[in-house]
Write a structure and sequence with these properties.
Layout lengths: L6 E6 L2 H11 L3 E7 L4 E6 L7 E6 L2 H7 L10 E4 L3 H10 L3 E2 L4 E3 L2 E7 L5 E7 L1
Parallel strand pairs: 1-4, 5-9
Antiparallel strand pairs: 2-3, 3-4, 6-8, 7-8, 8-9
């Protein structure tokens, strides 16, 4: 038996702003963008296509809008793993990504917490 998590829904305020950030700033691939009439099916995937994609889901209503940037109750929600931490950290800083902290070494790897423009907390991580 083989199972994997293929995608995670990320509630965002607007599709196009989220696409712009994840594709233009972060360099993710826009792998699907299908207009379904009442909503869109938008999938972005980190370069290299390893691991789960994000399904960008536009918030509808007060409950979903209140979840934007707080889907994990203030904890780090998503983990972007890289094969070259220093390269990606420098590129992200140059693109205006805001890091909460300086890079640090942990027993599991090199890591730093960053924020997307919607308030989600992420780890940039290179495993040791």
């Amino acid at each position: 038996m083989m199972q994997s998590i293929s995608a995670i829904a990320l509630v965002v305020p607007e599709y196009d702003a989220a696409i712009d950030f994840y594709v233009r700033v972060m360099g993710f691939d826009l792998t699907e963008n299908v207009d379904q009439g009442h909503k869109r099916w938008v999938r972005v995937t980190p370069k290299g296509g390893q691991g789960a994609s994000l399904i960008l889901a536009k918030a509808e209503g007060k409950q979903q809008a209140s979840a934007v940037g707080d889907q994990a109750g203030g904890r780090v929600f998503l983990f972007l793993e890289t094969d070259d931490f220093d390269r990606d950290h420098a590129n992200m800083l140059a693109a205006g990504v805001v890091f909460e902290e300086a890079p640090r070494d942990e027993p599991y790897g090199k890591v730093a917490v960053w924020n997307d423009p919607f308030g989600n907390r992420w780890d940039l991580l290179q495993r040791m």
